[in-house]
Prior knowledge:
Blueprint: E1 9-14, H1 18-22, H2 24-30, H3 32-38, H4 48-58, E2 62-66, H5 74-89, E3 94-98, H6 105-117, E4 122-126, H7 134-151, E5 155-158, H8 177-186, E6 192-193, H9 194-197, H10 207-215, E7 219-221, H11 225-228, H12 231-241, E8 246-247, H13 257-265, H14 271-285
Parallel strand pairs: 1-2, 2-3, 3-4, 4-5, 5-6, 6-7, 7-8
Helix pairs in contact: 2-3, 4-13, 6-7
Amino acid sequence: MFKRVNMIVDSHTHLFSDEQISRRKELSRNDENFNSIYSSVDAKMANAEDLLESMHQANVDMSIIMGFHWKEKVHFDSHAKYLISQQQNYPDKFICFVPLYINNFNEIKVKIEDMHKAGVKGFGEIRIDNEITEKDLLNKILPELFQVLNMFSMKINFHTSELIGHNYNGKENGLTLSLLWKIINSYDFDMIASHFGAGIPMYQFMPFVKKKIQESKMCFDTAAFSLLYDSKVLELAIQSLGTKKFFWGSDFPLVNQSKDLILMKKLNITPNSLNAILGDNLVEYLDLS
């Protein structure tokens, strides 16, 4: 039986302010990206109090709270402001990753520096707008973005999109398998690829790919893993690539933290590996100790 001895940290949750939640219909009309995921009342939205209650029920110590990749730039700052305020209100519970508009590099350095001064640990969950070409993303935007992130020792979480499987709201606008592979081969970016990195850890059975992933700084969270993959895939990836590459993430409120932790604790991995994935890795990665 699993015996808890270390911190449990959720690497992937999403929060909205009460105002944003109450304005769901209006925001759906005015923001294309928001509408694509949250137009239906069945699409769960949560505020800080909702997450705190969930963490209490699931015995989660801390959570990374992330924003949303809006279509309209006006929403980025207000969402970041809310997330920062919640980190300030609950510094022992929340770690702040705020939205970041990466299309215009002229604004990125100032924005990252401002967020660093505000105590923000990172940015996420970043999506890739359709107007960004793959060439510009790989050759200009990402290299310049990570240059500034490294200056301030800040982290970033990218949404990823598996190419096959069922369609669902929110699947689009992520780094694809092929893009992640190009990043691993061309750069050494310190980044978190959400949702099991669009499945790229499954290619561990190709020795060349395994070696490249192990040598890279890319890490992967398990957000919504139970909705996408069989648990055996994660067990094999952990055993092959090592525990350091993985962070547990629920994708709350889409996925229930308590139920997701139960599934994680059933993994056929060592207790040390489980503790690492559930919190130790992220504590080290974000220098929280």
